[in-house]
Specification:
By secondary structure, the chain is α+β, with helices and mostly antiparallel strands. 41% of the residues lie in helices and 23% in strands. Among the domains are: 80 residues, D-Amino Acid Oxidase, subunit A, domain 2 (D-Amino Acid Oxidase, Chain A, domain 2, 2-Layer Sandwich), CATH 3.30.9; 50 residues, no CATH class. It binds flavin-adenine dinucleotide. The site of flavin-adenine dinucleotide has 22 residues, from strand 5, strand 8, strand 9 and helix 5. Flavin-adenine dinucleotide (FAD) binds next to strand 5, strand 8, strand 9 and helix 5.
Length: 275
């Protein structure tokens, strides 16, 4: 499904449920009782900061983390080319990864993650000859957009009637592919907390759903940092596809019961060492 179609469906559903959208509005200030939206004060019972990594709501509510984050640089661009697979491909290069996501019948999205702020998709294609061959002659449909991608969390996600959701509350490096999933899960949980009038519920549930994705992201970043670990892990998964499937379903698990616990992670570490 095209991103624009999904977007329209979500907006339609939210409008049916009574949500009012103020597109391109700027929030310039807020307090516990409301926010200035395009200069006009709008009262609220709850205030949710869903304003991204550098959340001003988080800073104001004293929820932002002061510690350093582990950050990298991400770039993405869409190309007019028929997808060659219905899977998301992750290609591993020296100190960088390239992802290819089929986004429509005639379009793919290519994303690059690296530690080098100067590396761009075109130059990095030298590390990914298989992708370069597929993209040969394809014209870019969008500009190359860049952003910092980090692994880090706010020091808390609730302060009184204020809650943080999405990257404002927790960012997982783009390599996990879980940023949006977590944001949607958090949105559902914060709504449940409103219904219960109990923000401690959101704080606890947020902690619970974040643990496994953070663990998995650290593992993936270890593969980025060590060629030795990367080779061992990929060799193990190539030899044991069932184990790879188990890891993938744990990674994408919708319930905590399906995720890998610490013992299983240690077991995996042991198998990697032996691979
Ligand atoms: C290169 C890269 C690849 C990624 N790949 C994936 C992937 O494959 N899958 C995945 O799930 N995630 C991926 N992510 C992560 C994903 O993009 C984020 O997790 C997601 O965008 C977080 O959504 P958000 O709404 O919390 O924050 P954002 O997307 O940052 O949105 C915050 C919004 O708040 C607005 N805002 C901020 N301040 C104000 C203000 N004062 N007034 C009005 N508006 C304001 C901003 O303009 C912005 O639109 C990737 C990230 C990067 C960088």
């Amino acid at each position: 499904m095209r991103r624009s179609t999904l977007h329209s469906l979500l907006v339609e559903r939210a409008s049916d449920l009574g949500v009012t959208f103020k597109w391109s509005a700027r929030v310039t200030g807020f307090d516990r009782r409301g926010a200035f939206v395009n200069g006009a004060y709008t009262k609220c019972k709850w205030l949710v900061g869903a304003d991204g990594q550098d959340s001003s709501v988080g800073r104001w509510a004293k929820l932002s983390s002061k510690g350093p984050k582990f950050s990298r640089f991400g770039f993405s661009r869409h190309y007019a080319v028929s997808p060659w697979t219905d899977l998301v491909e992750v290609h591993w290069g020296p100190g960088c990864q390239m992802f290819v996501t089929p986004t429509a019948d005639d379009e793919v999205c290519v994303a690059l993650l690296s530690h080098d702020p100067g590396l761009r998709i075109d130059r990095s294609l030298a590390h990914f000859p298989a992708v370069a061959r597929r993209l040969k002659g394809a014209h870019a449909l969008t500009a190359e957009l860049g952003s910092v991608t980090a692994l880090g969390r706010a020091r808390g996600v609730v302060n009184g009637n204020i809650a943080l959701v999405g990257d404002a509350s927790l960012t997982v490096d783009g390599i996990s592919g879980l940023g949006l999933t977590l944001a949607f899960q958090q949105a559902v949980l914060v709504a449940e907390a409103f219904a219960r009038e109990d923000m401690a519920y959101y704080q606890a549930a947020h902690r619970k759903i974040s643990a496994a994705p953070c663990r998995m992201t650290r593992l993936l970043l270890l593969m980025d940092q060590s060629e030795w670990v990367r080779r061992k892990v990929l060799r193990l998964f190539a030899r044991k596809p069932a184990m790879f499937s188990r890891m993938m379903s744990a990674h994408l698990a919708q319930t905590m019961r399906e995720t890998l616990d610490t013992t299983e992670m240690l077991g995996l570490g042991w198998q990697v060492l032996r691979a």
